Amino acid sequence: MSDTAAKTTEDRPELKRVMGPGLLLLFVVGDILGTGVYALTGKVAGEVGGAVWLPFLCAFIVAMLTATSYLELVTKYPKAGGAAVYTHKAFGIHFLTFLLTFAVMCSGLTSASSASKAFAANFFSAVKIDPDRGSVLMITALAFMALIALVNLRGVGESVKANVVLTLVELSGLLIVIAIGAWALSNGDGDTARLTEFNTPDGESPFGAVTAATALAFFAMVGFEDSVNMAEETKDPVKIFPKIMLIGLTITGVIYVLVAISAVALVSPEELNKGATPLLKVVQAGAPDFPLQIFAWITMFAVANSALINMLMASRLLYGMSHEKVLPGPLGRILHKRRTPWVAILFTTLLAFLLIGYADLTALGGTTALLLLCVFAIVNVAVLVLRRDKVEHKHFRAPTALPILGCILCVYLASPLSGRASDDYKIAGWLMVIGVGLWAITWLLNKYVFKRKSDFDPSHLDSSGPVN
């Protein structure tokens, strides 16, 4: 990083510290809750069978290990957040920083695309219409993504208070599922014997089924890393961040396991795996008199929020990389009246259209998890490398074994050894090829046409990661 860039970062105005433990906890929980558990519980059940709670538990453990690395970094560098910043501090390799930043952007696109598919499925449940063809769902998902683009072009002012409201809505839907499950089981309904059943394909071991399902279920745990970007707006982040992030992760982990138990006890894994509305089936089976339209609207609200936030993040990252001169200049153009990056918004929306048309919900969720597992593996290494960089203030320090174990597990879950579907690699590979192609074009133009050198500083970007 150049001296000028460092000085700019140090001299920027300090943000108002408005977040105490309560608001930070809601922010952490709200970023994790979302499309993953609402839409993919059935797909996870399809991978492992009745023991669907186990992959969510394993995903929680991997996320917790990586969270300790983020906690060491955010308390060590409370003014600079995000995987790209930490990677750049640790390795100083501009191309690696770009690859990681573009991977984070792509994970936002795949997450938003999966949310669009889930939105379409729940929309027809809410309006009591049964589409007779998959093309109707496809058109609805594309139309929803187009609407997100229009909202994005107009400009959205986000606030912590809005996040609180959205979190409570998302949380209410999951608590309804847990309550219905507890009530039904207490009345002798449901089948708890399924909880220990492994319905694995021929030739696959239960261990292989669990790791394959965990590789997908990890999508439900992403979002915790995004809270590090609130460090400058948190009161005494060095003191309260470790406790609050770990509590927030634990709360969501417990909720996911309880939701999974309720789901598979009331609905068979085979039935859960049909369609993109598994939790709606659970509510219908456990409480037939419950107004299903209300739950469908809650689910739509949750996944719509995820889609909007992720598309906002993706377009702003693309815009920022253009201004850092590592992507083509036109991606940095803005609407003068709205001050929104219209070219970046249109480009990311086009990519989202292609993803919605090409990939199914399982592949989109799996690709999101794959991209972020690669990012998390690098962060787990970066935290160890940065221990040579001493700071004067006290900060959280993760036991050395945890980042090492976190890195190993992230690499394993991202590798074919985990049983990850090949479609995940195809989608992630094509997205990264697009990124590297754009980078190469920009590099050639900078070197031979504009005669300038790019000095990519990720601290100038909005490095928010995806929410699920």
How would you explain this protein's 3D organization?
The protein is an all-alpha fold and 468 residues long. The protein has a single domain, classed as Amino acid/polyamine transporter I (Up-down Bundle), CATH 1.20.1740. 68% of the residues lie in helices and 0% in strands. The protein contains 17 helices and no strands. The protein has helices spanning 3-11, 21-32, 35-48, 53-76, 83-91, 94-126, 134-154, 160-186, 206-217, 237-266, 269-272, 278-286, 292-323, 342-358, 361-385, 401-414, 422-449. α6 packs across α17. The longest helix is centred in the N-terminal third of the chain and has 33 residues, at 94-126. It is globular. The two termini are 32 Å apart. Mean pLDDT is 86; it is low at 1-12.
Strand content: under 5%
Assigned CATH class: Mainly Alpha
The CATH topology is given as Amino acid/polyamine transporter I
Mean pLDDT: 86
Shape descriptor reads globular
Order of helices and strands: HHHHHHHHHHHHHHHHH
Q: Tally the helices: what do you get?
A: 17
Total DSSP E strands: 0
User: How does the major sheet shape up?
Assistant: none
Short description:
With 468 residues, the protein is mostly helical. It is 68% helix and 0% strand. It has a single domain (27-460), classed as Amino acid/polyamine transporter I (Up-down Bundle).
Key attributes of the depicted protein:
single chain, 468 residues, mainly alpha, Amino acid/polyamine transporter I, 0% strand, disordered N terminus
Spell out the blueprint of helices and strands:
Blueprint: H1 3-11, H2 21-32, H3 35-48, H4 53-76, H5 83-91, H6 94-126, H7 134-154, H8 160-186, H9 206-217, H10 237-266, H11 269-272, H12 278-286, H13 292-323, H14 342-358, H15 361-385, H16 401-414, H17 422-449
Helix pairs in contact: 2-8, 2-10, 3-6, 3-9, 4-9, 4-10, 4-15, 4-16, 5-6, 5-15, 6-7, 6-13, 6-14, 6-15, 6-17, 7-13, 7-14, 8-10, 8-12, 8-13, 10-12, 13-14, 15-16, 15-17
